[in-house]
Specification:
The complex is a heterodimer of chains A (about 375) and B (about 120). Chain A has about 375 residues and is an alpha+beta fold. Chain A has 9 helices and 20 strands. Chain A starts with 6 loop residues before the first strand and ends in a 12-residue tail after the last strand. Classes of the chains: A alpha+beta (about 375), B alpha+beta (about 120).
Chain lengths: ~375, ~120
């Protein structure tokens, strides 16, 4: 379980009262499962609405006349091209083009942006942003917020019943509906849904209202992981790391074409070289044959027994109904349908390269 | 008359006529969560106490189940190949994992009875 130095969620008492089983993740003591269990929690999210406490993630407000210039330097992004309320997936890259973190950047105003960072990288991200900010006329402010996600086809209806209308908000857009609130239509499950950063007192009131609704169930980190894996979404530290660049990670779609060509972001030269060479390995979906899950760390081999790559995330997909995994394979093997073999405790399990996601995305795009 | 024993690794053994039926306890299945795969041993496999006999896989993780005593596998619960969730729903019944012929019945003396196991998990 968790050591004494773990950080604790502001709403930990609510999770404990709900019967959560806690475990350590990225330095936090997090609810892993609730009494319903990972399978029911996962399926409930796809069918109704799952409520997640993701307060381990960090919100940064970046504001000032130099905000656009800072973000364009820090990320392979054209921050000035974002419409107000538009969100975009982006990255902090190192000079070698490796992914330090993946982030969601939302434009709140002409010179004001929200950056949402991963828990495990939040401290490093803040240091990185502050160091860069010294060269620009900009303020970087980490926000103390409870951060909730509500995900699933009934998420909007449950929020509406709780008094929060989301009507015109589309996928990958974010707004500030109340003082010190940030609400975006986004998430990490592949479903329609919302992420809401808000002060603790407001969060307690909102959670109480939401849980009165039988469509809403607390969902732990275990189901969050199986949901995002089925949706083909990367977990930083596993599927993407400082050793993988966006080209190998098959995430170039997140970088606008003109930025790829001429952006002055950190890592630009290295990334251009990587794109030109073509990645040696590529991130792919992996569908193991049969019922046996293939997990992170498993080595992959081609049909002749030559090393072919490795698995970075793997488990069972409750909605897919079969094991699901993600990993990196030699670029020559990355075509969907190609068969490779995973070593699981000495047995070679046939695994087919699969297109992602395993379960279709159901985002509200318009 | 069968006698049931428990281990500190949360396994149960029901011993009758020199054969032990082995499974994991209800407490263990609850800790593991929903099982999606059970890697079963082959009949005839000889195991020493502490060897991995079975691997149970939940949505999130794989966990070893160890042989609680020395012996030889006489049967694996093949039903679990198609329905691993039986271990969750009936851990001490239809969700048994394997049967083994005991090599040394004196090893049973080191195991717990139900009252001792209940105290162990309390």
């Amino acid at each position: 379980m968790t050591g004494d130095d773990s950080k604790h969620l502001p709403l930990e008492d609510i999770h404990a009262a709900a019967g959560a089983r806690f475990g350590a993740f990225a330095g936090w003591s997090m609810p892993l499962t609730y009494p319903a269990g990972v399978m029911k929690e996962h399926l409930h999210t796809r069918e109704h609405a799952g409520l997640f406490d993701i307060s381990h993630m960090k919100l940064f407000e970046v504001s000032g006349p130099g905000a656009i210039a800072l973000l364009n330097r820090a990320c392979p992004l054209d921050a000035g091209a974002l419409e107000i309320s538009q969100s975009k997936l982006s990255f902090f890259l190192n000079e070698a083009g490796g992914i330090l973190d993946d982030l969601i950047v939302t434009r709140l105003g002409d010179t004001r942006f929200m950056v949402v960072a991963n828990a495990g990288n939040a401290v490093a991200d803040e240091k990185h942003l502050r160091e860069l900010a010294a060269n620009f006329d900009v303020k970087v402010e980490p926000l103390e917020r409870v951060f909730l996600a509500i995900q699933g086809p009934e998420a909007w209806a449950a929020l509406s019943r709780a008094g929060i209308e989301t009507g015109s908000l589309l996928f990958m857009h974010g707004v500030e509906p109340r003082k010190d609130w940030f609400m975006s239509r986004s998430g990490y499950t592949g479903e329609d849904g919302f992420e809401i950063g808000l002060p603790e007192a407001d969060a307690r009131a909102l959670v109480a209202k939401l849980l009165e609704d039988e469509r809403v169930l607390w969902i732990g980190l275990a189901a969050r992981d199986s949901l995002r894996l089925e949706a083909g979404l990367c977990l930083h530290g596993q599927d993407i790391t400082p050793e993988t660049d966006p080209a190998a990670a098959a995430l170039m779609w997140a970088i606008p074409k003109d930025i790829r060509a001429s952006g002055a972001f950190i890592g630009a030269d290295a990334l251009r070289d990587a794109v030109e060479r073509g990645p040696a390995q590529k991130r792919v979906g992996l569908k193991p044959e049969g019922r046996q899950p293939v997990r992170a760390g498993a080595a992959l081999f081609d049909a002749d027994g030559n090393p072919a790559g490795h698995v970075t995330s793997g488990g069972f997909g409750p909605s897919a109904g079969h094991p699901v995994a993600m990993g990196y394979v030699a670029a020559s093997l990355a075509k969907p349908g190609t068969r490779v073999f995973a070593d699981v405790r000495g047995t070679k399990i046939p695994v087919d390269i699969s297109s992602l996601p395993f379960t279709p995305h159901r985002y509200r795009k318009g | 008359m069968a006698t049931t024993y428990f281990t500190s690794d949360h396994e149960w053994l029901r011993v009758e006529g020199g054969i032990a039926t082995v499974g994991i306890t209800d407490y263990a299945q609850e800790q593991l969560g929903d099982l999606v795969f059970v890697e079963l041993p082959e009949t005839g496999k000889k195991l020493a106490k502490g060897d991995t006999a079975v691997v149970v896989e939940s949505v999130k993780a794989a966990s070893d189940v160890y042989a609680p005593v020395d012996g030889e596998i006489t049967e694996a619960n093949g039903t679990l190949s198609s329905d691993p969730s039986l271990v969750n729903s009936a851990a001490t019944g239809a969700g048994w994992l394997w049967k083994m012929r005991l090599a040394d019945e004196s090893q049973l003396a080191g195991l717990m009875d139900e009252a001792a196991y209940k105290a162990h998990i309390a």
